[in-house]
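DM from R.C. (forwarded with permission)

"hey, sorry to bug you on a friday — could you get me a structure for this? deadline for the figure draft is monday and I only need the backbone to look sensible"
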Amino acid sequence: MAEDFITTKLNPDNHLLLEQPLIRLHYELSRKNFKSVQKQVEHDRGQILSTLKTVANAALSGSQDPFQALATVESMINRLEALGQKLQAVQENEKRLQAKSRQRIKHLGELYTMQSLIDVKYEEWSRTRLDRLLVDYLVRHGFGNTAKELVKRKDLEGLTDVDVFEECYKIELNLKTGTGLTEALSWCIEHKALMKKERGNNALEFHLRLQQFIELVRKRKLIEAKAHMQKHLAPQTEMYQQEVFEATGLFAYPPTTRTEPYVNLFSTERWNFLSQLFVKTHHELFAIPEYPLLQVALWGGLVALKTPTCHSANNSRITSSRSAMVTVCPICSTELNDLAKGIPYAHHSKSFVENSPVVLPNGRVYGRERLRASLAKIGVAPGLIRDPITGDVYVESQLKPIYFP
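My reply, with the result:
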């Protein structure tokens, strides 16, 4: 009984290892929201105080026309009103982020009210989590409309971030097609301060500026290209010396050149590189995992099951009626075999071996008694042995027992 309790006991802390992005993303979005409004307030405050000081001094000295002074004050009032509207929009966005964060904290807090994995409440909670993971997987693979429909049907608006991913992948798609430089650069400028603090440097912005330079050279707009280099690339020479040096050489080569490294700089493959770099930068900035959480969760389960046999030459992923009565190893299945190739083998400190193990001529190992019981159910003739997975038929005398020291 004690062992059954241990295997079904729910450990909330283990679940939270997979759920960190659920909270972290909105924390990063709130921080970005605060930083943007802080920068705007400080900028407008400095401008208004400077103007107000000038007007006050001019009024005291009597050197300014009253109508001009009134116009300046009205301009300051308009600026304050515009700032107030911006702050109101930011406040509404902050309220939305806080409401989502509260809903997510409540969702995760429900784990601490459950004691067992067989609790009915846990089954409901885990179904909600699966729906969240499916939404995350769908939107990352370009099925945004399907993800939105699932969010709508399951009422997952507060627990998912379809809009964040859609913005990211829209820019990624435009970069792949060679039309997203302006959007990507605007995104970099908007998040420049945050990227500088978190990443130390902004490789994405540099490579986007480099691509702008390449496109100007490709169109033979050499004067504009030179001005662009002096403004955006030359100041980065210390950090990107090799890249700037190679870019300078483009002035001497046409887009049809076959000379390295200029052929690579002119190559359209750079658009794929830029799109991948943008997604990587976006996800790192907002603490979004590189892979979909559904895939991460599957890896976590598969790593506990994987053995060298799962990817051996003797492994067969046949799913026919001959193996319908046999439990198929998840890793050996057609659906998950490729997904499990990149993960390490499971580490088991205890060995669980079937009673009276025997090996078939094809190298597969089964417990003798379980094999006989299985064959009796499917009506195999006495004296014959059929591999439950591959269907190969052997004479019983061909079985060889296995002995462990």
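R.C.: lifesaver. The chain has three domains: 2-118, 163-285, 321-401.
me: no worries. The first strand starts at residue 357 and ends at 359.
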